[in-house]
Amino acid sequence: SFPSDEVIRKRLLIDGDGAGDDRRINLLVKSFIKWCNSGSQEEGYLQYQRMLSTLSQCEFSMGKTLLVYDMNLREMENYEKIYKDIGKHEKIIAAAHEKISECKKQILQAKRIRKNRQEYDALAKVIQHHPDRHETLKQLEALGKELQNLSHIKENVEDKLELRRKQFHVLLSTIHELQQTLENDEKLSEAEESQETQMEAEAKQ
């Protein structure tokens, strides 16, 4: 004898993803029972067609589940890639902070050089008001050489600062573009999740 409908319902209550698999399996078992107990060939053929239809629905549901599984695997791979990219971005940002710190040191050095040059210029003006003496000329010559040396140092520092500014600007632009890319990827992922949710809602209906 066949088990009762209640026993079958309890045994086949396995709808884990909310796609109606338990209802389809119940319907398939009921159709099979009716097909076994069918009194006429016409009724048997009708139950046979119902079983085929239910099996097709189960196969479609299984295929959809496999597609969702494959998509989840691809999403996991994508998230792992994003995690690795974030690690690279953090290294780039750390390097940028180091360059900023170095640029600040160079700026302080340039300020000290400028201050020294102003002091030397003031001293040179004071010396020029004194009588022309041999020692004074020697000092002026030494100051002139030192000023020239400081001028070269200042020019080199300014050139290096300008280069660092350009490099820092390029670095900031790259970081901004990377942030935009991450935000776009996040928005795309949210859109795909929203579409999946809508598809699952439609499947339930």
Structural account:
This protein has 205 residues and is mostly helical. The protein has two domains: 2-128, no CATH class; 140-204. The chain has four helices and no strands. The model is unreliable at 10-19 (pLDDT under 50).
Percentage of residues assigned to helices: over 70%
Number of domains: 2
Gap between N and C termini: 35 Å
The gross shape turns out to be: rod-shaped
What low-confidence regions span 5 or more consecutive residues with pLDDT below 50? 10-19
The largest pleated sheet is described as: none
- Summed over residues and divided by their number, the pLDDT gives a mean of 77
Using only CA atoms, what is the Rg?
41 Å
What are the secondary-structure elements, in order, as H or E? HHHH
**Which structural class matches the secondary elements?**
mainly alpha
Distinctive features:
205 residues; mainly alpha; 2 domains; 4 helices; 89% helix; rod-shaped
In short:
The chain is mainly α.
Describe the protein's topology.
Layout: H1 5-11, H2 21-36, H3 41-128, H4 134-204
